[in-house]
Amino acid sequence: MSQQQDIVLSGIRSTGSLHLGNYFGAMRNFVRLQETHTCYFFIADYHSLTTHPAPEDLHNNVRRILAEYIASGIDPEKCTLYVQSDVPETCDLYLLLNMIAYVGELERTTTFKDKIRKQPGNINAGLLTYPVLMASDILIHRAHKVPVGKDQEQHLELARVYARRFNNTYNCEIFPEPEAFNFGANLVKVPGLDGTGKMGKSEGNGIYLTDAPEVIRKKVMKAVTDTGPTEPNQELAEPIQNLFTILDLVSKPETAAFFRDQYARCSIRYGDLKKQLAEDLIAYLAPIREKFEQIINDKEYLGKVAAAGREKARASAAKTIAEVRRAIGINRL
Ligand code: ADP
Ligand code: TRP
């Protein structure tokens, strides 16, 4: 199969507003890929249920993420944009893949071990089998390329294991082995503004795509730094490297080069760097925020987009599930 015929799929959980990590780790690639590939993008509302959100919050978050997808440049005419829970075939496949997924390999997943530490009071079976549901999302459309950030690498590895194991077990070639994709470059990890770790919805360290300019200014000015370099060409400490990582994403190359040079000469003023970073972020995000505000309350439009996406996604999913059932021997009597 040629590169251009490869099927692309990715999803984002409906757990809150999208931040720079979601955008640069995932969404930016979605926007590029929809021009050249058959793409499926969806809102992973089932995956967000592991933490038991209130129904009202879940509903609002799904609508919000749909609007944020579109505001970020995803065009529902160019791809299939849908809500995970609208495609019940995904759950059929989830049940079937659970039969070939081993508890031991799921227990060893880093994300599961993290959750055990972070939410010891709610280690539900949905958390354990989270990667199986994710593999079902991917395999139901027989996707080849999955644009995701670095944190999803291990989940993709499992999706490949299940594709291979299913094909071997049932002596078929239904599933291609999907790969995490970033146009040949390393997968992206956008850091938070709190000095260490990744930017995340639940970490409270993020800049959101729809943050107002004054909110962005405040957050950036509060970002963790250090006392400054003490000798020329000193290595950047992690919090400073993090600011430069974000600067590289949103500012002109000359801007980042200018501040790197100042750092190397020990003449850097972090206040100036932050002011520039804040203004560049505001300019970068302005079109996304404007488009978001135009559509977020247009329930009719958003409803139509979701309904059209559901039709297209179900048509593709139904074909896969029919083949899967036949391969397993689940035939009509
Ligand atoms: P979050 O991790 O903020 O809860 P999701 O789990 O829904 O968000 O992630 C959606 C997509 O965004 C995934 O492809 C994920 O890899 C990517 N992503 C999330 N945070 C980051 C980050 N800090 N850097 C790079 N990519 C990220
Ligand atoms: N697990 C992904 C995350 O937390 C979201 C997701 C669910 C996903 N299903 C997917 C991503 C399928 C890519 C493909 O970010």
Short description:
This protein is mainly alpha-helical.
Describe this structure in words.
The longest helix is centred in the last third of the chain and has 30 residues, at 299-328. This protein is mainly alpha-helical. It has helices at 20-33, 55-71, 89-98, 103-107, 110-118, 125-128, 130-139, 153-169, 213-221, 238-250, 253-264, 270-295, 299-328, and strands spanning 7-13, 38-44, 80-83, 145-146, 179-180. The chain has 2 domains: 3-188 and 298-328, 3-Layer(aba) Sandwich (Rossmann fold), CATH 3.40.50; 213-293, Tyrosyl-Transfer RNA Synthetase (Orthogonal Bundle), CATH 1.10.240.10. α2 (55-71) crosses α12 (270-295), α3 packs parallel to α13 (299-328) and α10 crosses α12. β4, α8 (153-169) and β5 form a beta-alpha-beta unit. The chain has a 3-stranded parallel sheet with strand order 1-2-3. Strands 4-5 form a two-stranded parallel sheet. The radius of gyration is 21 Å and the shape is globular. It has 13 helices and 5 strands. The site of tryptophan (TRP) has 13 residues, from β1 and α7.
